[in-house]
Write a structure and sequence with these properties.
heterodimer; A: 446 residues; mainly alpha; 22 helices; 77% helix; 0% strand; B: four-stranded antiparallel β-sheet; 6 helices
Chain lengths: 446, 613
């Protein structure tokens, strides 16, 4: 072959090679950019975006261990999390990478976040956050995993302890303040919750919702009705959140303006006829205004709506850094029963009063029996303990608890006598509560 | 003190936690947990030194708020320095053991013990707490030399024998000898002192049969002298607090960030039984049967009056962190507890509160009676209006007490007509229980001064309104008991307020009088406690005022036994009717109606009463 003939061929080969190399570079560059984008999205807590980027990448490169690891982290940290899928990707990463400190760390965080009481793992993570060599973003992740794990398992005080450390170690973290505020609020420690909300408000001065929420908390706790109404404003007709409007009603009540209190709580009930706290306050305000009949009606309707409040809702709200709007169903049961008694007391209806007193006494007996049961339950509850506990929880209007207990019982003893009936009673109670919610009484206003 | 004590979710939580340990993602039981248990134990911050407790506190949010309150028409001058009273209640906090014992404080009692026409003062002194023993300091007895000058009793008063840590001072002429005797409640025992001609007090506890030594009766707090069995002799109810001992002193975490330790909440301790002693009429007492129907409590206040209007004295008991109790006297030596039924068990929703002080008041021209209860942080001060025959409505919002908010801890409460305009105003002593309350709470809190706005005053009317006054009321304090009495016999009620960490104060009422006054002494000088008695005063302008008496009002204190009635614009009285606890009534003769002075009235020489209705 002559040189003149071979030159174009060589040039072509060179161009092809260059193209191939370029394409390779482009792909590599693009893949690395994808990972970087996913990391950046994770840092910015844009979990959906991070997940999509990583899923796209894994579709092309299913054996990318780092993508699996990163996706596991994203799935764990997103709200709500998906720990099952996170574990699958972490397992894939482990298989591809072999022993790896990053995988070990992710594994530890996953275990703790799942709510297991894994003392050794928690101690390991505690050691890592205490170490000055641990980077700030890793410490943040560890704190977050520990907090979420304790919330998931219902160990709220432990969660708060970790949040205390988190806030002390890494000041200015809005997430930590929000979580702690929600937990403290749920624990009915409003003065401490307010401190965190104030810290949050300082970080987000234009956040109107935060300002409102401080007002809500001040009103609900009764700390300072004057300050609360200043934060919330007196106009409730243009408000659309039943909790906020109820808080305005509470302020009017506290300040002695029972007419406006009734109007506001009436609006809250029109906004959401299933909002139990508004019915509770409606009863209280009506009673103090001397309208015992309306008070009785509100109290009885709210009692019919119970449970109406779900422990599960509260759990999800806390995990999602949302302030759980409702206290425990048993608290409502006790309070509403007392309001019913107060209303009947005002109405002078002695026979009904005695019946209401009887129901109230039964609740008190259940509470006493529950406390006794808890005192005497061995470390591993037996089947009878579980059955009794489920029964009592149902009596105390906590269908979530009752159901969880009875399901645990059925897992161990599918034929335990009465267990299925209890489950049925739970559903029946929920059904009746829904029926009541769908048929609210007419709201009377002055 | 239930801010202390979160809702009763702790036990409910445990089984759930137990189950959560069994299986992953177990039953979610994150109900409210008791505040200040484990949640804050790791918050690092050095514990403030005890000295900080006694140094002036920064203005609390409540005191800052007072700037926006309307000005008080009342003037109280702090005359402690010139009075000769140099008294301090020692609560033992300097030992830094964080005992619940140190949170209650001590009382004061005002009476003319030596019958020289001027009020004298007995003050509780508390004690100290070491690592293995609780000891008491002697109460102080000050006699008045006139013009608000007091001097410690010359020589031995007899109170030197008090060596137990004590709280309450309660008065009654239990033996009907004409001299007012003194009961002292406290940790370890109680003591009855007989007034020997105003010169000395003799400990007659054992002689009177009150020295019951039972393991479970070891922390007496509130007491009530009242004739429960209607035999003409004052009986004695004694409330006990909680089963705390140095031996069972738990360590409790602080309640706010950075506080490693603080005083434990009452929920950590069991309630104690109460006692009822019937007066035998011969200087001795017998203890009521255990089947009397009185239940254990965590008692800090108790009052007796005939709310059910059946001629028998009933009993209302303020409990700390458990429901209050309302005992209906059955007339056969037994009582029936009906607090929930009658609407006086707790807060707006009947929830248990940390109730401390109690007082009664007649609110308006119709004589509507009400019971007021001071409560813990996070709770409203309560007001229960008696609709009749002891059926109560919760009325804290309607009557203005709710507007005070919940950011304070109340103790002593007194209703009195500070400016003599014919309305009953109020004072509430305040101060926190725990040593390091988290913001926005504060250890020291200003006392609340409340004015009752009647219909002829600026709105809002028919309710109490917090008003701002200078001097003592402008500053935060750790106040506990208030004793009210007319120390200088001018018809204006003065105040003695005890504290923790600061001296007892004497506040002279110098409010410009907006009217004349009339006073009467119905105290237990004639051997009968005035519980259940009523006085109806009708003035020359046609205004009628109702006064009902209840024993045990206030917090650990005893007020001047005389009644002072502000007459407002009226110049004289038209009629005064007195009704005793048996329903018999007397119309006072003309000679008792002169305004601007006190009258002493003895039912035994008052002629035939009108029969009961």
């Amino acid at each position: 072959m002559s040189a003149s003939k071979s030159a174009p061929i060589l040039a072509g080969i060179l161009v092809l090679l260059a193209g191939l190399v370029g394409t390779g570079f482009w792909y590599t560059f693009r893949d690395n950019g994808e990972l970087d984008d996913a990391l950046e999205a994770l840092r910015l807590q844009q979990y959906d975006k991070a997940r999509q980027l990583l899923l796209d990448r894994l579709e092309r490169r299913p054996q990318d261990a780092h993508a699996h690891l990163l996706l596991s982290r994203v799935l764990r940290r997103m709200i709500p999390d998906d720990l099952t899928l996170a574990r699958q990707h972490l397992t894939a990463a482990r298989q591809l990478l072999g022993p790896n400190p990053e995988v070990e760390l992710e594994e530890a965080m996953l275990i703790c976040q799942s709510g297991w009481r894994a003392r050794e793992t928690e101690a390991d993570l505690a050691g890592r956050v205490a170490s000055p060599e641990t980077p700030g973003d890793v410490r943040l992740m560890i704190y977050e995993a520990l907090v979420r794990g304790h919330i998931r398992a219902g160990r709220l005080n432990a969660a708060i302890r970790w949040l205390d450390r988190w806030i002390e170690a890494l000041p200015g973290q809005a997430d930590a303040h929000r979580w702690r505020a929600c937990l403290l609020e749920y624990q009915q420690r409003p003065h401490l919750a307010l401190e965190d909300y104030r810290a949050l408000a300082a970080m987000q001065p234009d956040n109107r919702t935060l300002r409102d929420h401080q007002g809500v908390l001040l009103a609900e706790s009764g700390y300072d009705y004057q300050q609360a109404i200043q934060l919330l404003g007196e106009d409730f007709s243009s408000r659309h959140d039943p909790r906020t409007v109820t808080a305005q009603a509470i302020c009017f009540y506290g300040l002695g303006d029972l007419v406006r209190a009734r109007q506001a709580v009436g609006r809250a009930l029109r906004l959401d006829p299933s909002y139990v706290p508004a019915w509770l306050w409606s009863a209280r305000i009506a009673l103090e205004a001397g309208d015992a009949q309306a008070g009785l009606q509100a109290a009885r309707h709210a009692l019919a709506m119970l449970p109406g409040v779900s422990s599960r809702q509260a759990k999800v709200a806390l995990l999602e850094q949302r302030s759980p709007p409702l206290a425990h169903p048993t608290t409502y049961l006790e309070r509403l029963q007392q309001l019913e008694i107060q209303a009947l007391n005002q109405l002078g209806s002695l026979q009904q009063l005695q019946q209401a007193m009887e129901r109230y006494r039964r609740t008190q007996e259940c509470l006493a029996r529950w406390n006794q049961l808890v005192e005497n339950t061995p470390a591993v509850p037996d089947l009878d303990n579980l059955y009794q506990a489920a029964q009592l929880q149902l009596e105390l209007a906590d269908c979530d608890e009752a159901e969880t207990l009875v399901q645990r019982l059925l897992e161990q003893a599918p034929d335990y006598p009465g267990a299925m009936q209890l489950l049925h009673d739970c559903h029946e109670r929920r059904y009746q509560a829904r029926q009541a919610m769908e048929n609210p009484p007419t709201i009377t206003e002055p | 003190m239930p801010g202390f004590c979160g809702p009763n979710g702790a036990h409910r939580n445990r089984l759930t936690a137990l189950l959560a340990g069994l299986a992953l993602l177990g039953a979610f039981g994150c109900r409210p947990e008791p505040a200040g248990t484990a949640a804050t134990e790791n918050r690092k911050q050095p514990a403030p030194k005890t000295a900080a407790l006694t140094s002036p506190q920064p203005a609390s949010p409540a005191s800052r708020q007072s700037a926006s309150l309307p000005a008080a028409p009342f003037v109280f001058a702090d005359v402690t320095d010139s009075s000769g009273i140099t008294h301090y209640y020692y609560n033992g906090e300097e030992s830094n053991q964080y005992t619940i014992l140190e949170s209650l404080g001590g009382g004061a009692a005002l009476a003319d013990f030596n019958r020289d026409g001027m009020l004298d003062i007995v003050l509780a002194s508390g004690g100290k707490i070491t690592s293995d023993v609780v000891v008491g300091f002697s109460p102080k007895y000050y006699t008045q030399a006139g013009r608000l000058r007091f001097r410690p009793a010359a020589g031995r008063s007899g109170f030197e024998s008090v060596n137990f840590y004590h709280h309450g001072i309660y008065l009654c002429d239990y033996d009907q000898d004409g001299w007012i005797d003194v009961l002292i409640t406290g940790y370890g025992r109680l003591a009855l002192f007989k007034n020997v001609h105003g010169e000395q007090f003799t400990d007659v506890t054992a002689q009177a049969g009150l020295d019951i030594q039972r393991q479970e009766l070891h922390w007496s707090t509130a007491a009530v002298w009242a004739d429960f069995n209607e035999d003409g002799h004052s009986d004695l109810f004694v409330g006990h607090y909680v089963d705390w001992r140095l031996k069972n002193q738990p360590v409790c975490a602080g309640y706010g960030p950075g506080v490693p330790r603080d005083i434990c909440p009452p929920n950590r301790f069991a309630p104690l039984p109460c006692q009822l002693f019937y007066n035998n009429g011969d200087g001795t007492f017998r203890e009521a049967a255990t089947a009397s129907g009185l239940l254990p409590g965590k008692i800090l206040g108790a009052i007796a009056a005939d709310w059910t209007e059946d001629g028998l004295l009933d009993l209302y008991v303020a409990n700390d962190a458990i429901p209050n109790q309302f005992y209906v006297n059955q007339g056969d030596g037994t009582f029936r507890e009906e607090a929930v039924l009658r609407g006086v068990a707790g807060g707006p929703f009947g929830e248990p509160e940390g109730s401390m002080g109690l007082a009664t008041v007649s609110l308006d021209v119709s004589g509507t009676r009400a019971i007021a209860v001071t409560n813990y942080q996070g709770q409203l001060h309560g007001l229960y209006e008696d609709r009749g025959r002891g059926w109560f409505d919760y009325a804290a919002a309607r009557r203005g007490l709710a507007a005070l908010g919940t950011n304070h801890v109340g103790w002593g409460i007194v209703f009195a007509d500070w400016d003599r305009d014919g309305d009953r105003d109020a004072v509430i002593a305040q101060g926190h229980v725990i040593r390091h309350p988290p913001e926005p709470q504060s250890l020291a809190q200003p006392a609340l001064l409340l004015q009752f706005r009647s219909e002829h005053e600026p709105p809002p009317t028919g309710r109490f309104v917090a008003v701002a006054a200078g001097g003592y009321f402008a500053q935060p304090h750790r106040a506990r008991a208030i004793a009210a009495g007319d120390l200088d016999n001018d018809g204006a009620l003065d105040l003695v307020i005890t504290h923790i960490g600061e001296p007892t104060r004497l506040l002279h009422n110098q409010t410009p009088a907006s009217g004349n006054w009339w006073g009467i002494d119905l105290g237990c000088f004639n051997g009968r406690d005035k519980s259940g008695w009523k006085v109806v005063v009708e003035d020359d302008r046609g205004r009628t005022q109702h006064y009902s008496f209840a024993s045990g009002e206030g917090y650990l204190a005893s007020h001047d036994m005389r009644l002072v009635v502000g007459l407002g614009a009226a110049q004289s009285l038209k009629r005064v009717t007195i009704t005793d606890d048996l329903g018999r009534s007397w119309s006072l003769p003309e000679s008792y109606l002169a305004a601007g002075q006190y009258h002493r009235w003895d039912y035994r020489s008052a002629g035939t009463p009108h029969p009961p209705d």
